[in-house]
Amino acid sequence: MKNKITISGAFLFFLLVQWYGIYFMLYNHPGPLGLNDSASYIQQIDFFREFPLSSPSLAPSNINKILHPYIFGLLASLMGISATSMFHLNFYIGIFLMGLTITSLVKKIDSSALFTVIALLLFAFHEGKGSYHGFFWVVPSFYAIMLFLLTARAVFYSKHHYIYGLPLLALLLVTHSTGIYLGSLIVVAILLHETLFKRNLPGIKKLVAFLLAVGVIFIGSEYLYQQHILPASFTSSFNSYRKVEFQNLMPATALNDILETIGRHDFSKYFYGLYTPLVVYGLYWIWKEKKYPLLSLFMAALIGQILISPLSNYTYRFFYPLEILTWIVIAYGLSKLLQPREWSTAGITAKTSRWALVVLSSLFLYNTIHQKAAHNFYFKFYNPLFLEAKAFTDYLDNNQDKKLAMYVKLPGVYMGLQQSGMDFAYHFNPSGKNIARDPESWLVIGENLRLYEANNGGFRALLPKDGALHIKTPALLPGRYRIELIDTELPGTDGISISADGVTLSDWQEDSYAVRFPEKGMYPPIMPPWYWFPDTTWPLHNRPMRKTDIVRESRKHSIDFTLHEPTASLMLRNSGETRYLAGMIQLTNLDTGLAQVIDFYWGDETTLKEGISLVYGDKELPLLWTDPNGAPGRAYLFQMKKAFKDAKAFTYYGKASDI
């Protein structure tokens, strides 16, 4: 009973730490977590949310990634929530299932409650990295690892390894593109276990059965692909991963690839670096206690990681199972190290060695906690999409009679906002010519992403050659003023001038400008200690967890001027080449400190529609927009109707040549 309570407590700790990490990253996070990678997962979930009984041939998923979007798309449909909400909920569900999987497996490996507790405490802080994913990224690769562990449990620790193992293997193969590799590790582990350790040749029949299962699924999917029932096959995944044909593999090149793989810090720290004593100690006890299934799995994963290096362009995507098994090995060694009876009978030398391992294991845990917290901070601020999602979907819902022209970077994000009852007619990157033919039937959605990446592109405000922007201000009293063009993406200020009070000025001063992430309100009210002081460098680490709030470096141009007479407007003129503006125009009264801002990124629609206009020739026009570097192109201009921060709604205005 005591052991059950202890294990339950460790399981609860695992959930709380991992779930809090998810909560921390999602807390007031702008947009879906993990853009741009998450957009494709959300789009796939949304397909099955909308068409839960659809044929796989119509799905935007490969056969070896079909299980995750299908299950969570079906759940989203049943729960009546959006694909984005389901994607985020999937993180909590996945961590819970992984906790059960780890608990179930380690209890089968060894009945020691201490082993189970240590494993859960360590995995509570497992994070991973972008190169091979990990517990921070609950997507098909995560579930493939979970199914890999469950299949291993069924094969090595169940009396009914065919009844449980074969269905789990089938699910593994249709969960992620690494499924074939993970299934191969199971097969190799069976081979090692039955021949090298048990010397049980009749046990090879288990190997044959699992090979046949893999073969049947593989050949079946290829046949369905050829019959156009499936949109893609395992072969297409192989082609995307493959670096070189096996028969064309050069020994010298293969050796270099292997040396590059084992030279990476992720690999070396376990196998010939700082944590090697912990791994060796764990392996010693696994061998001594004859935990041959775990040893076979570990050896298969280690061999697989080395052999896959010259064959794949994405070698470290296959590091995931090796790290998980290595942590289990370390946890087993620590469970033996911390047993009181091992200390009571040890001599001075043995106790000294054990104390050294205790210190090293404490350092391992310390660095693991730091890695988790630091990566949570990184991912929390990674590729944000500031979108007023509720207002956006309500606006589209009220315009369902329109065709939606979506000029956006990540279509899946917008598809993932739909909930039950919504059916938006999305058209991604249609020709501007199509919109011009029937402008009344179209509503245009364009992005101008402020903090997503350094060079985002998207819709920009037009400032044509020999045109001007009329900045409509409240009555400006005589005094000293400064106008600043901030982060506007202007390559320079040649031909750009400001006119006010009958005076035209063009002597701009250029300064650097750091575009910063607005962190106010981004942190939960209660945080565990490892999230405290993100700007402070931890001992033994050379960088703080939150390295900087600067997203990118930009420029600003400013002019100081004096008004001698009251005026109600300013003109930003352009006598040079046509420009397309992002960023902000800020007018500041240097005497009072009051400022007026025209924000092309996040400005409210009233200011962008009524506070500024385009003057061209003898005409005053509304502020006009287009994407100058992508569809719909510079030839077609649009008028803003509604602003939702990083996305805006537009209607077609006309051709640039006609204004």
What this model shows, in words?
It comes from Chlorobium phaeovibrioides (strain DSM 265 / 1930) (Prosthecochloris vibrioformis (strain DSM 265)). The chain is an alpha+beta fold and 659 residues long. The chain has 2 domains: 379 residues, no CATH class; 159 residues. The protein has 21 helices and 19 strands. An 8-stranded mixed sheet has the order 2-1-3-19-18-17-4-12. A hairpin with a 2-residue loop joins strand 7 and strand 8. Helix 5 packs across helix 15. The longest helix has 33 residues. It is elongated. It starts with a helix and ends with a strand. The model has no long low-confidence stretch (mean pLDDT 89).
| Strand fraction | 15-25%
Instruction: Give the biggest sheet.
Output: 8 strands, mixed
Rounded to the nearest angstrom, the radius of gyration is: 30 Å
Overall number of domains:
2
* Average residue pLDDT: 89
Order the strands across the largest sheet as they lie in space: 2-1-3-19-18-17-4-12
Structural class given helices, strands, pairing?
alpha+beta
The shape is elongated
- Total strands: the figure is 19
- Low-pLDDT regions: none
Number of helices in the DSSP assignment: 21
Helix content percent band: 40-55%
Please give the alpha-carbon distance between the first and last residues: 81 Å
Protein name: Glycosyltransferase RgtA/B/C/D-like domain-containing protein
Keywords: Membrane, Transmembrane, Transmembrane helix
Organism: Chlorobium phaeovibrioides (strain DSM 265 / 1930) (Prosthecochloris vibrioformis (strain DSM 265))
